[in-house]
Amino acid sequence: MYTNRSDVHKGRKKNRRRIMGIYIALAIIAVIMVIGLFIWKAVDLQANQSAGNGVENSGTPADPDNTDMVVSPDSVTPKPVKTEPASPNPDKPDASGNAHVTLDFVGDIMLGSSVGVLLEQNGYDYPYSHVKPYFEKADYAIANLETAVTELEAAQEKQYVFKTSPEALPALKEAGIDLLNLANNHSMDYGLEGLFDTMKFLDEVGLNHMGAGKDAGEAYTPHIVDINGLKIAFFGFTGVVPDVSWKAGKNQPGLAETYNYTKPVKSILKAKEQADLVIVVAHWGIEREDIPNKMQTEMAHRYIDAGADLVVGSHAHVLQGFEFYKGKWIAYGLGNFIFTSNSFSATSQTAILEASCSKEQSCSLQVIPFIIKSAKPEPMDDSASQTLYKHLSDISINANLGSDGKVGVE
């Protein structure tokens, strides 16, 4: 306690010095905080600028354009597909050094009935003399087998039933065919036993097959092959099933049908996760009609939306046109290839469709035309070829054919 005025004055002076010291300390702390904040902002700005230039803290390149969606196999929402056109030199590695594969597709092969008689007379290798060099040059050749291969006698009750002797298969293999689609309206002409015979005889000679099986799981499983460093998944689906009993089910042998898109789309989505290329061979359409129907176009678009890189059709017995859809090709129908003759001339026009595809998931197409004479494809002359190219251009969608048979974007 202060006892006089002098002591009071000295006490007040000491208090003022103490308060002033506190103010100064607070001011110093504030300055330090401002400086620290400034330094932190500067460092943060520099880090943001580095990230904007594509460099993460780890030092690895960032990918700001990576917009691929993550897709569940059970989803029907497709992963975005690239829409770049095919490489102008598809038979050679592109600028990035990616590999290419050459695939030859043909339409319906039926080696029974009157064709079987010709084979017995001229030899089982009779139909292939003009086309074998193309198959041998290709990396892989694919066809639709429009017949049961069996020695059974009891056929199904339907208008046309086709049966081929297993003795005809080695020559088909020797000709260069690698893979056969069984998802069609004739594989079960001799019932389930005939289908099992077909698969057994194909296996024995080393001919791969797809689109049929002991149940739906096997029928919808793709045939996967590694060629030139590319993993390719092939599917066979049919939109032509004579009887509901032909459809593969959970515990039911049969064919992979595509009246409903659900199973094909789920199968394609799943295959896309493990394959570089997904290719669908579909049996569909209306016989002798060269314009695809609504079912064909809708299904083809769904296949591509799900991840298919190429769709190739058969069944109509005549050549159908092409469509360029979201950067992918659809060949709606390749007609007959080795088949019986009739008075409808368009059914004798056929072709090898040569597809050159890259790991970039783009394909270029070329049509190599033939004319079927006594079940034997023979080269088409130039005049007839040009007429065919023009016709196919006229019936195609967003596509046309050049004078060399190459399919281009319109």
Q: What does the model show?
A:
The protein is an alpha/beta fold and 410 residues long. Helices cover 31% and strands 24% of the residues. The chain has helices spanning 5-52, 113-122, 132-137, 169-174, 191-205, 216-219, 262-272, 294-306, 382-394; strands at residues 100-109, 140-145, 148-149, 163-164, 179-181, 208-210, 212-213, 223-227, 230-238, 254-255, 277-283, 310-314, 322-325, 328-331, 336-338, 349-358, 363-373, 376-379, 399-401, 406-409. The strands form four sheets. Strands 1, 2, 5, 6, 15, 16, 17, 18, 19 and 20 form a ten-stranded mixed β-sheet that branches. Strand 17 (363-373) and strand 18 form a beta hairpin. The chain is elongated. It starts with a helix and ends with a strand.
How many H/I helices?
A: 9
Main beta-sheet strand count, sense and barrel state: 10 strands, mixed
Helix content: 25-40%
Number of E-type strands: 20
Chain-averaged pLDDT: 84
**Shape, principal axes of CA atoms:** elongated
Q: If you compute it from the alpha carbons, what radius of gyration comes out, rounded to the nearest whole angstrom?
A: 34 Å
- Estimate what percentage of residues fall within beta strands: 15-25%
- Calculate the terminal CA-CA distance, rounded to whole Å: 105 Å
Helix/strand-derived category reads alpha/beta
